[in-house]
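It is worth pausing here to work through a concrete case rather than discussing structure prediction in the abstract. The textbook approach is simple: state the sequence, then state the predicted structure, then interpret. We follow exactly that order.
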Amino acid sequence: MILNAKPQRTRIKFCGFTRADDITQAVSLGVDALGFVMWPKSRRAITLDQLASLSERVPSFVTRVGLFVDQPAELIRACLPYLDLIQFHGEESAAFCEQFDRPWIKALRMRDGIDLHRLAAQYSSAKALLLDAYRPGTPGGTGEVFDWSRIPADLAKPVILAGGLTPDNIAAAVAQVAPFAVDVSGGIESTAEGKDIEKMAMFVNQVALVDAR
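Step two, the predicted structure:
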């Protein structure tokens, strides 16, 4: 068995949902995972009550992902009934991430000098590493692209590519990086209030075109 072969299909995660109708549209396009931002400083943040309501709109076999940034364990535990996967986007230690009895992924911002091999070993129980653009003081959602050539081809963890992805650049990103999955939020929005169905569909279609080659 070849463990590190490119997947037959690039998985897609849409993040930052705040409206039930957007969830219905995303699910209809066949996305694999939906992200909910629980960090209160994000413009896409939702409350625990909103998470409970929105999670009901997600059908089986679509993964519900909660995004947290250095937040209390008590809050994360309160969200667990509505989540299938946890995304840690701050400076959380591996020991902190491992305590919640849920699969988890670790987001890493691609600052200068980052050692992805070392971090893959440090977060060895993570299901994947999400690689995002780096901006000082901003844990994610910058809408900026980093240099994809900085990602090692032999990284020991599956890569989820994030950072400034849009329907216009996603085909090039998937072709160059061949990630296990891609993650997008702002690139499929037309307003601050929610997602754009046309942009979501274009994004999914562009990924499928590259996968079919």
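Step three, interpretation. Confidence is low (pLDDT under 50) at residues 1-5. Residues 159 and 180 are 5 Å apart (CA to CA).
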